[in-house]
Amino acid sequence: MFGCLSFLLIALSLSAATPAVADEEKTLRALEQKLCEAFRSSNAEVIGQIEDDNYTLTSSTAKVTGRADDLAEAKNNEPHYDVFSNHDVKLRFYGDTAILNGITSVKGTSAGKPFAADFQYTDTWIKRDGQWKLVASHATKIVQ
Where is the DUF4440 domain (predicted)? Predict the structure, then answer.
């Protein structure tokens, strides 16, 4: 009897948590989409709101950059993105930390020259004071 009661209580607690997790997943997916659009439209204000002050990106060339670099690129519209989108995204939660893995597809111009590429990426998000902030990213170019 105790085992059945324990199982029932655990099942009820898991089902109660499911809507909250679904809401958090929806929020993070929307934030990632908003960030992609901010890069595509060179919206430094939105990038600054979403990225943590100490945000770092390890690029596909192993260069480590930060929030200030992203803001400068957006303000200068360099590179210019015609396409900046994420797809095939998988999301996992670890308390107030979330890891997203997926593919970023980009197309645009840099120094007047066209480019197009796909990158396998990992984004790390932390929830602080009720807000999700992007704290770290890693991108690896997918070679066709």
Answer: 28-134
